[in-house]
Amino acid sequence: MLNYRDELDKMPSYDGVEKSYRIKVNANESTLNLPPLVAERVLNRLAMTAFNRYPNEEYYSLVEQIAKNFSVDSAQILLGGGSSEIIEKVFHAFGGAGRKVVYPQPSFSMYKIYAKAAEAEGVPFDLDERFDLDADAFIAKVKEVGASLAVVCNPNNPTGNALTPAQVEKIAASIDCAFLLDEAYVEFYGRSAVNLVAKYPNLLVARTFSKAYGMAGARVGYMIAQPDVTRMINKCFMPYHMNVLTLAAADIVYQMRDEFVPRLQMIISERKRMFKRLENLDGVEVFPSETNFVLIRLARAQELKDYLESLNIGVRYFSPSAFGLKNCLRISIGTRMENDAVFSAIRFFVEAGQ
Ligand SMILES: *Cc1c(COP(=O)(O)O)cnc(C)c1O
Questions:
Q1: How far is the CA of 321 from the centre of ligand 1 (A)?
Q2: Fewer C-beta neighbours within 10 Å, C or N terminus of the chain?
Q3: Span 56-102, pLDDT tens digits
């Protein structure tokens, strides 16, 4: 008899279906691989990598680069296998039986799972009908339940909207417990709260190379917090949890991050263009976005998802039970050609149904 740990069978799994599509706009990845110049430098670097050694130098080299960019001490940076690993460790560090973690809904579906994995109680806080977060009500909820961790994704996945830095600061200043800010999409928004870390010892900011830097396959993210916080969170990681291939590649990507600026601008302008076009379709509601995706709502969302799938276009559909996301589809922004193809298919579907 395989005697699994209690509750493991009831543990939900991440429900992202990862199939390949001709046009894959379901996972908020970068549609473009690394810029050729960056890819070439990454390959050269990998050729010089010491595969026989544990990755110490490579870890600290990337840490120092990131610290320098944000003008913080390198003791304030932790790296992770995607920001997912970091977020999971933060839940682990502040979780445990009898503890409460507050996070908005709808938001990143993994928060609920990490809370459960940390044996903490996940306490969802409802966004309003426009998916805006009422900061005062959120603060009140965190205090009311006596949470040990509050989590906010900014800009928010899957709704696309964002809190202003002032709202983020208000939350950081008003709650006593740890406040994890998940900035997975912040490069598409441009208003990070990293500068608040110096002022608020309870603030932890998680960032990733997966979205803006087209590195989802390499699994690399980082966290910025005060040194005492990173020292504690670091205890939750295995030694040498980052592999040398990822570190070496990320070191080059970070050095060459200016090479990504034109594509970030392209994604932002394409997002605006898609928003306007979708907004003009009858029966389609589109939500303002500060990310690399847009969320739409329409009566026949599931049928549209099936239709797009028949054209080999993959979008993100949410189970009807997902809070607030009934009849919603999330569509990542691709290249101009991809976006045109996706939009034409949606327009055809909507107009044919009237
Ligand atoms: C994509 C994403 C992440 C992180 O992904 P990693 O690939 O693990 O860095 C974290 N939070 C949100 C909300 C995301 O959408």
A1: 22
A2: N
A3: 999 999 999 999 999 999 999 999 999 999 999 999 999 999 999 99
Q: At what angle do helices 82-94 and 227-234 cross, to 10 degrees?
A: 90
Measured distance CA(210)–CA(215) in Å, rounded: 5
What's residue 12's pLDDT?
A: 81
pTM score: 0.97
Cα distances (Å, whole numbers) of residue 14 to 24, 39, 108, 331: 18, 30, 10, 18
The alpha-helical segments, DSSP class H, found in 256-294 are 261-279
The DSSP H or E segment spanning 132 is: none
| Contact (Cβ atoms closer than 8 angstroms) between residue 292 and residue 211 | yes
Q: Is the CB of 83 under 6 A from ligand 1?
A: yes
* SS3 state at 220: coil
Nearest atom in ligand 1 to 221's CA: 9
Are 222 and 97 in contact, with CB atoms under 8 Å apart? no
Measured distance CA(324)–CA(303) in Å, rounded: 19
